[in-house]
Specification:
- It is a single chain.
- The protein is α+β, with helices and mostly antiparallel strands.
- Among the domains are: 142 residues, Beta-Lactamase (2-Layer Sandwich), CATH 3.30.450.20; 148 residues, Histidine kinase-like ATPase, C-terminal domain (Heat Shock Protein 90), CATH 3.30.565.
- 51% of the residues lie in helices and 18% in strands.
- The protein has 17 helices and 18 strands.
- The longest helix has 70 residues.
- The radius of gyration is 45 Å and the shape is flat.
């Protein structure tokens, strides 16, 4: 009674502490989460604006790079106006300058060209950013007519032209891959080059291809915002992406496999985000659900074509789980604080509860032992209370279970021996009857001095010999079924055993009118050869007997790859009448047979032997379209590599 009261008291004290705490924790969690969400959304807007600013600054910097070749480098003007003539000495100087420019860009630029007013290539860089020379095929492909290119015509009209995110036909891909890769995309800058004789007229164009990887890295790189972050985890778990000016096409993303996909189409399927980006220049996306996760995000448009920009859309997103991480941390703090209070309560009540829980744990341990099959499990240190009575009842139950199991095991053994004796007696009685009759006939012929005694004697001896052979086979079947012989595995060619089995049945095949078809490959197994031969003899004999009017027997060996190696598959196919589902379900049962002779142990023995070889054996009907018949299939692990 004291223990029961103390237990209730402990539960009451714990409830008195936990209930107010849980209410406070719920209130703090929900209220703080809502306020925290507003702060995070402001943070996302700030980060989106800063990311768009970085992209715009990067483009301005690249535009100044190209503009330098049109305004600050007289070599460009002299080279373009000098034409394609080999005597134009400035071509080599400008080409070397282009090579240094590309190499010094650290992978930012892949191509820079000077083109005259006719759209003819005057000079280009002749090496890549690694310093490796461009191939003659690439250089030859660059020497083309550019006069019809839209960017060329825009630049010749005196304005800078931009070529948006694309796979350029001018250069081969940096990375050979079947999936989109940042380094295989480019953006282009085309700047007019003023004629030094007529400054208001464009003498040609400088065109450069900037590799997309720097933009991808710039967009997806973690940049700590200038505005104070609400928490370090928010900064570290946010992610950035870049869409095209249509507010729908993905241009840069932490997952390059999304390149070129439409946000509004299946695969992403977020048309509400596209609508929000088209509606405003800088705002929050509506909260959305994507691939099982709720998310919040903000966007900002980069400068558009009217300001020499592409009009891309920069997005910054974060999972809601990360947003509420701070609230979860607060909840953890509350749990820790409460744990300190609870620990005092637990320490006081533990002394009272220990004596109550100890016998329960002991009973649980013994119950698990009993459930696992240990019927010797007993509860010790029994007390005089209700738990002690429960322990004594458990001990009585365990003792009764042990007695019952011993009786069941004995009964099962007796039944198994009786069944085995009955089967042996039944099988041996059949050949003993003709032996006895033949012996009586032989004795009568001798007593009567029959003139046919010698003939009767020879026939009797032959018959007795046949019956003894049959009884030996019966004894061998029962011995094999009992597993009396210890396997002796060796490594050998599987087809060699099949060849022996075929040779053994050659005369029977010819007599039965059965044709043989072989589809064999080489392969070795590590099993007992005699046991495998016994299994195959049984299957081949069954197949021949299934075709009393003749037919076709197919023996095949094939290989199947496995996770840790390979397996060899032996198939024995006949064109007999086949097996019904009822018969096929019982084929591997001991003593079951569809014939009037035999012990019914053949397939049961075969199944046991194959399983001891770590293999499987099945009997199935032939597939539809191949006619009637049965397929016996044995699968064995292959030993070593196939023989060449």
């Amino acid at each position: 009674m004291i223990r029961r009261i103390s237990t209730k008291w402990m539960i009451s004290v714990l409830a008195a502490v936990l209930v107010p705490f849980l209410g406070f924790a719920w209130f703090a969690d929900t209220q703080m989460a809502n306020r925290h969400l507003d702060t995070v959304r402001y943070y996302l807007l700030t980060m989106a604006g800063e990311a768009a600013e970085r992209v715009d600054n990067e483009l301005r910097e690249r535009e100044r790079d190209i503009e330098m070749w049109t305004t600050q480098s007289p070599f460009t003007q002299w080279t373009i106006t000098g034409g394609r003539d080999e005597e134009n000495s400035f071509r080599a100087l400008l080409g070397n300058s282009f090579d240094r420019f590309v190499k010094g860009s650290n992978g930012v630029y892949d191509l820079i060209m000077a083109i005259n007013a006719k759209g003819e290539l005057i000079v280009s860089n002749r090496c890549d950013f690694h310093g490796d020379a461009l191939t003659p095929a690439v250089l030859a492909a660059l020497d083309r007519d550019y006069s019809q290119e839209a960017w060329f015509q825009t630049a010749m009209s005196g304005h800078m032209a931009l070529v948006d995110h694309h796979l350029s036909p001018l250069l081969p891909p940096r990375v050979q891959t079947n999936t989109p890769h940042p380094e295989n995309f480019h953006i282009g800058f085309a700047m007019p080059v003023s004629d030094h004789l007529e400054p208001d007229k464009a003498a040609g164009v400088v065109f450069a291809l900037m590799n997309w990887a720097p933009i991808q890295n710039l967009v997806t790189r973690k940049e700590r915002p200038r505005a104070p972050s609400v928490a370090p985890d928010i900064y570290s778990t946010s992610y950035v992406w870049l869409w095209g000016s249509d507010c729908d096409t993905i241009l840069a993303h932490p997952k390059p496999g999304l390149y070129g996909k439409k946000v509004s189409e299946p695969g992403v399927d977020l048309p509400e985000l596209v609508a929000a980006a088209k509606k405003s220049d800088w705002d929050l996306y509506p909260e959305y659900y994507f691939k099982g996760v709720w998310k919040n995000a903000a966007f900002k448009h980069c400068v558009g074509p009217d300001q020499n920009g592409f009009g891309w859309v920069v997005g910054v997103g974060i999972d809601n789980d990360d947003i509420y991480e701070t609230a979860r941390e607060l909840r953890l703090v509350l749990w820790v604080a409460t744990a300190l209070v609870l620990s005092l309560v637990v320490c006081v009540t533990m002394l009272v509860a220990r004596r109550t829980t100890r016998p329960i744990l002991a009973l649980k341990s013994q119950t698990q032992r009993l459930a696992s099959g240990d019927l010797d499990a007993r509860v010790t240190d029994l007390t005089d209370d209700e738990l002690g009575e429960l322990g004594r009842s458990f001990n009585d139950m365990a003792a009764e279970l042990k007695d019952s199991r011993n009786q069941i095991i004995k009964a099962e053994k007796d039944a198994a021996w009786r069944e085995m004796a009955r089967q042996v007696a039944h099988e041996i009685k059949n050949p003993l009857t003709p032996i006895q009759l033949a012996a009586n006939l032989l004795k009568r012929a001798k007593d009567e001095g029959s003139p046919e005694f010698d003939t009767i004697f020879d026939n009797t001896i032959a018959m007795i010999d046949r019956q003894v052979v049959g009884m030996r086979k019966i004894a061998a079947d029962f011995s094999a079924f009992a597993g009396a012989r210890k396997p002796e595995p060796t490594v050998f060619e599987l087809r060699a055993v099949l060849e022996d089995v075929v040779a053994m049945h050659a005369a029977w095949l010819q007599e039965a009118g059965v044709t043989l078809e072989k589809h064999w490959i080489d392969g070795q197994v590590f099993v007992d050869r005699d046991e495998l031969s016994r299994v195959l003899i049984n299957l081949v004999a069954n197949a021949i007997e299934a075709m009393p009017g003749g037919g076709k027997l197919t023996l095949a060996i094939s290989r199947r790859p496995e996770r840790t190696g390979s397996s060899l598959i032996v198939e024995v196919k006949d064109t007999g009448a086949g097996l019904s589902d009822t018969v096929r379900a019982r084929l591997f049962e001991p003593y079951f047979t569809t014939r009037t002779h035999g012990t019914g142990l053949g397939l049961a023995i075969a199944k046991r032997l194959v399983e001891e070889m770590n293999g499987t054996i099945t009997l199935e009907p032939r597939p539809a379209g191949e006619g009637v018949g049965t397929i016996a299939r044995i699968v064995l692990p292959e030993r070593g590599a196939p023989t060449p």
